[in-house]
Write a structure and sequence with these properties.
There is one protein chain. This protein is of the alpha/beta class. 41% of the residues lie in helices and 18% in strands. It has a six-stranded mixed beta sheet with strand order 3-2-1-4-6-5, sandwiched between helices. A six-stranded mixed beta sheet has the order 9-8-7-10-12-11, with helices on both faces. A hairpin with a 2-residue loop joins strand 2 and strand 3 (21-28). Helix 1 packs across helix 3 and helix 10 crosses helix 12 (297-304). The structure holds adenosine-5'-diphosphate (ADP), acetylphosphate (UVW) and magnesium ion. Adenosine-5'-diphosphate binds at residues 8-11, 173-175, 202, 246, 248, 290-292, 295-296.
Length: 362
């Protein structure tokens, strides 16, 4: 029996996995209340499972640095790596550390804890995609995140069509990212050294000219922590719209800033799709996941309409009826299959833990 703990930037997902069976719960979580609130959620969830003690607890770990490319048991070294990388993933790593601590307090040190890394799927991108054009001696490499989601989306594409060799996956949740996958290998992804790069997100800026950061510091006098807060918590949809992070709401609003936020969000996705078609040398499938990807047909329409020249032809009816459920939303004649997939990251994490336990040398 595995307890899975998946902290996203807007939610806490808990799962209880007993072979194929299991149960799950999702609680909205905005980071407020920290360890106390997180422990309470876990305590209530475990109570609902009859207060059983899990065989192990598995955590989604967003950023432990480039040294960790595969799931592993959490020891002091792993905890230190998560701590050391906390400044690079301030919305995730500090909470993950609190959760590891909370689980140790709840279940005791004898219950092993497992780290499933969100950077694992894009861990081995080609150097030309993984590096920035800065001196190599700095040792800075793009890692990419949302790897559990992108891995599952690639699997879904191949399950639907085993001939799908070139796949673009789009994780559109509170954080958002795109991934280009060729023959099962992530060859590029939009998040980079940190989960700030790439697509526009609920409260994160995504791609930005690094000169802006210098300007904010040198000319506007912002401190490092003010810039960190600005880019992670006050930018993206929130920043452009003037405080709203809900695309569902923004689609209904008629003011210029709300409309601009939606336009920018969709435009950047289209831009990345175009870039990744070029990177992949063509395209067989687009897979979309995450709360926004699952629930907002109008956003999907705006992202993919008019891309017939890339072989992407949407089916309006299929798209409109796909709300909170998975399914193909491209037209039958479309060369590229566009599919929405409801992702179960926690199940993936439990499978990783089972795999670790099955290995002979523990
Ligand atoms: N029913 C819904 N309708 C519209 N948007 C939704 C719905 N459910 C979730 N979302 C949006 O999805 C995002 C959260 O997605 P999710 O994948 O759960 O995020 P994360 O894992 O990053 O915390 C939020 O921006 C939220 O507004
Ligand atoms: C890595 C990341 O941004 O995750 P989430 O979208 O769950 O916040
Ligand atoms: Mg998520």
């Amino acid at each position: 029996m595995f307890l899975t703990v998946n902290i996203g930037s807007s939610s806490l997902r808990l799962g209880w996995h007993d072979g194929e069976a299991g149960s799950a719960t999702t609680a909205p979580f905005d980071g407020k209340g920290g360890a106390t609130v997180l422990s309470r959620h876990i305590g209530q969830f475990i109570e609902a499972q009859g207060n059983a003690t899990p065989t192990a607890v598995c955590h989604r770990i967003v950023h432990a640095g480039a040294a960790y490319g595969e799931s592993c048991f959490i020891d002091d070294k792993v905890v230190a790596a998560i701590k050391a990388n906390s400044p690079l993933a301030p919305l995730h790593n500090p909470l993950a550390l609190e959760l590891i601590e909370a689980c140790r307090a709840l279940f005791g040190a004898a219950v092993p804890q497992v780290a499933v890394f969100d950077s694992a799927f894009s861990h081995n991108m080609p150097d030309y995609a993984a590096l920035y054009a800065i001196p190599a001696r700095l040792g800075i490499r793009r890692l990419g995140f949302h790897g559990i989601a992108h891995h599952l989306m690639w699997q879904a594409a191949v399950k639907r069509n085993p001939q799908a060799r070139r796949v673009i996956s789009l994780q559109l949740g509170s954080g958002a990212s795109a991934c280009a996958v060729r023959d099962g290998r992530a060859v590029d992804t939009s998040m980079g050294f940190t989960p700030l790069e790439g697509l526009m997100m609920n409260s994160r800026c995504g791609d930005i000219d690094p000169g802006v950061l210098l300007y904010l510091q040198q000319e506007k006098g912002l401190s490092v922590s003010e810039i960190e807060d600005l880019l992670n918590r006050r930018s993206g949809l929130h920043g452009v719209s003037g405080g709203n992070t809900s695309l569902k709401d923004l689609l209904l609003l008629d003011d210029d800033q709300s409309k601009l936020a939606v336009d920018m969000y969709c435009y950047r996705i289209r831009k990345y799709v175009g870039a990744y078609v070029a990177a992949l040398g063509g395209l067989d499938a687009i897979v979309i996941g995450g709360g926004i990807g699952e629930h907002l047909p109008e956003i999907r329409r705006r992202c993919f309409d008019g891309l017939a020249f890339l072989g992407v032809e949407m089916d309006d009816c299929r798209n409109a009826s796909c709300d909170g459920s998975g399914g193909v939303i491209s037209a039958p004649q479309s060369n590229v299959t566009v599919e929405v997939v409801v992702l179960d990251e926690n199940r993936f994490m439990a499978d990783e833990a089972a795999r670790l336990f099955a290995q002979p040398a523990r």
